Amino acid sequence: MSWDAEHEDGAHTVGRWLTDRAARSPQRTAIDDRGVRTDYATLSSRATSLAERLRRGGYGPGDRIATVSGNSADHVVAFFACALAGIAFVPLSWRLTPRELVGLLDRTDLALVLVEDEHAALAGEALRGAERMPPVAVLGATEVEASVPLSRTTRPRRPVHDDDPLLVIFTSGSEAAPKGVVLTHANCFWNNLALAQALPLGAEDVVLAMLPQFHVAAWNCQPLLAWWVGATVVLERSFQPARVLQLVAERGVTAMMGVPTQYGMLAADRAWEQTDVSTLRLALVGGATMPAWLQDAWTRRGVALTQGYGLTEAAPNVLHLPADEAPASPGAVGRPYPHVSVRVVDPESLLALEGEATGELWVRGPSVFAGYLDDDEATARAMSGEWLRTGDLVHRDAAGVVRIVDRIKDIFISGGENVAPAEVELALGLHPLIAEAAVVGAPDPVWGERGVAFVVPAAGAALSPDEVLMHARRNLAAFKVPVHVEIVSALPRSTIDKLARSRLRERAERLLAAPRTKGHVPETEEVGP
């Protein structure tokens, strides 16, 4: 019996995108991974073979397979194999510390962990600290694709359904622990269908994928659509401005996505003015609102940036602003994608506001997530009926164009990465000499925002900013480490004893605007999501 006959799947399942495309365009290049090209026939063959090995090993719908891997063809093979077998794919961030990874491993109830050689030490340390050690295998054609560890719980074979989880992406919210966002095959289908209608790609496109694949945008903002239509995806493992500019010119890149920090660093690179960027027709911006100077810098080179807005819980695309409208609407993030409905709601009365209005942005549509992983309470807090509450305060003008005003939630975005103050505060509180800590985001010209920590020492303790920063670096990913630490005797509070974050933000803005020495974190080479 053939694979297709035995495993007939739903109308919106993503695994069939690859097998269908391979049947139509077998020799077209699907992936360019550091110069090594993989055509659609080979990618499909590898993914289909691994999916069958996983099924024979007892894995199937209901299971979750995690990865610790950089961007690579091997990682894409594992993704499509999971999609074909109905297994949830859980890409974990290699930027996290072992302590942070342990927390995710313990909460995810994993059937298998796939690790890339480069990140074996990180994954190994985290796995040794986990409460339960799941089976582990190495990514690659000669590793897990040749031999899959047997599952500890055999799943019965069944077809893949549209509502089966496809991706579980961990994202920082307003709480201390990151939450796993569950996106089904149908969620991702509708997200990519909307993208195809608003910002279409074709088989002749060359997409540069430079966002790390533990982010939803690394799949659902161009790459998956590219593999759906038969385009080529150029995979990059890290963001290096000179290297990215070289790839744009040498590979004839036509489409890419990045965060404002990345586009700003590209425009500031020495090779910027000499690089041929004429092939680039669709440069999508997400993660934060781009400043007007950045739009101007790219427009002068003949490339108009297309602003987008989204969140992982919406798979992620919600709003976009066509490039030709950007000059007339500075700071705007646009109108809804097809198949996405939005409303602006008064945060107090929860009544929908009509016409020009300022309030919380709510989102509804078939791309809105299935819920948080094993957390019904958090899911209920995020939803109001069919509507996803974003926590973002927006202004909608008379023409229906949305502009982000502020975040109702406390998270801030640094270099395209969400940072939850509660998570950073919890990590700082692990230090025995810290009694209290509060973290806020403050504007930064390069990163968009950076964290500033206000720390109250334990009674009688002598504590320095440098000691706090060393502790933070041991317990937090680099992008979460505050850029500045201020030692204070007490934290400001309101009359109801609530932390007065607005006063801390004002103080943080003044601190970052002034020359910094003590407590300042030097810039790192790591950038972007």
Which CATH architecture of the largest domain is right?
3-Layer(aba) Sandwich
Low-confidence stretches: 1-7, 517-529
- Helix/strand-derived category reads alpha/beta
> N- to C-terminal separation?
43 Å
CATH superfamily of the largest domain: ANL, N-terminal domain
- CATH topology annotation of the largest domain: Rossmann fold
What integer value in Å does the Rg equal? 23 Å
Shape: globular
Q: Specify the number of helices.
A: 16
Question: What does the average pLDDT come to?
Answer: 92
What's the domain count?
Answer: 3
Strand content: 25-35%
How would you explain this protein's 3D organization?
This protein is of the alpha/beta class and 529 residues long. It has three domains: 30-160, Rossmann fold, CATH 3.40.50.980; 191-407, 3-Layer(aba) Sandwich (Rossmann fold), CATH 3.40.50.12780; 412-513, ANL, C-terminal domain (GMP Synthetase, Chain A, domain 3, 2-Layer Sandwich), CATH 3.30.300.30. The chain is 30% helix and 26% strand. The protein is built from 16 helices and 27 strands. The protein has a 15-stranded mixed beta sheet that branches.
